[in-house]
Amino acid sequence: MPLNAVTSHTISIQDHRIYYLERKGQTSNSPLLILFHGFPENAHTWEALINVLPADYHIIAPDLPGYHQSDPLTDSSDYQVPSLVARMKEFVETVSQGRKAILVGHDWGGAIAWPLAAFQPDLFHKLVILNAAHPSTFTQALKTSSAQRKKSEYIKALVADDAEVVLQQTDFALLKGMLGSAMFDGAMPKNKDHKASPDSYGQRLLRSWRNTPTLSAMLNYYREMPQMAPDEHAPETELSRLRVPFLRVTLPTLVLWGRLDDAFDEGILNGLTAYVPDLRIVYHDTATHWVHREQASWAAKEITDFVT
Question: CA-based Rg of the chain, rounded to a whole angstrom?
Answer without folding.
Answer: 19
